[in-house]
Amino acid sequence: MADELDEQLPRGVAVSRRQGAPPWQVDAGERPSLHVVVEGSFHLVQHEQRVLELAPGDLVLVGAGPPGAAPCEQRLRCLPSLPGARSSHAELLSATYAAAPAELPALAPVVHLPAADTRDSPGLLAIVSLLRAALADPGAGQEALARSLLQPLLAYTLHSHRRALAATRTVDRRIARALQLMQAKPTERWTVAALAKAAGLSRAAFARRFLAELGVPPLRHLTTIRMQRAARRLAESDDSLAAVAAEVGYDSEFAFSRAFKRHMGEAPAAFRRRCSAHGAALALPVVCAAA
Predict the structure, then answer these.
(1) Which residues of 239-264 are buried (b: 16+ CB within 10 A; e: fewer)?
(2) Rg of the Cα trace of the chain?
(3) Residue 216 phi, psi (nearest 5)
(4) Which helix (H) or strand (E) holds 162?
(5) What is the β-pairing status of strands 110-113 and 59-62?
(6) What is the pLDDT of residues 164-204, one digit of tens each?
(7) Whole-model pTM above 0.70?
């Protein structure tokens, strides 16, 4: 995954955690930036006009339009929950990137990912929790740790955005059949050929259509399904790692642990300990950092 991030995603150049009592604002700047609303009521403002309301748990990527697009004055304005009311606290995590994501040249200048769309992405929530923890601790090395999380943060955000877009359009019924099988039987030893046969397509046609529909290859999507289920089981149960591994289609605890760490950025045991000890404190307010 690290190689894919280096090849496809821009480098994160700055990261910050802002806190305070509204009203206050953050200029988005000239570089593309990704913002996570942890607490408070925010609005994205363009040329002094409110264009987007943001709630706790929302993510917004701004300045990520096609190359050559005209810059647009943008800022995030934090406001009290009610006009004239006093709000005790607001918090915003912000990351700035060297360039717009090259993998999505047609991306809109503003990408909004509501909290409702992050609930099924334990990876995204885990990265946000780790980032928040790093920024909350001013100790030596924490800034470097926070910067190392910026590319995974962008990767999971874009993946969740693509998935949300895919959910709003009609999926090819043959691809839908394959998706249903993956969801219903994640432990099955699926191959691209087997999924293509179930979908009634040749292997090449199936792989091509699947990538066009979901933006990722079939087996990578299957891995995402398995890791999401594994994350939930690790966070919500006391099952052994071997039992969780078997439940999501892995023959050995070692193979599962290696796949989980590659996909989630930390080992299953460490993920479970963090959720058990700090999940409620480090998670976004509207969701549990159980993708």
Answers:
(1) eebeebbbbbbbeebeebbebbeebb
(2) 20
(3) -140, 155
(4) helix 150-167
(5) antiparallel
(6) 766 655 567 888 889 889 888 888 889 999 999 999 988 88
(7) no
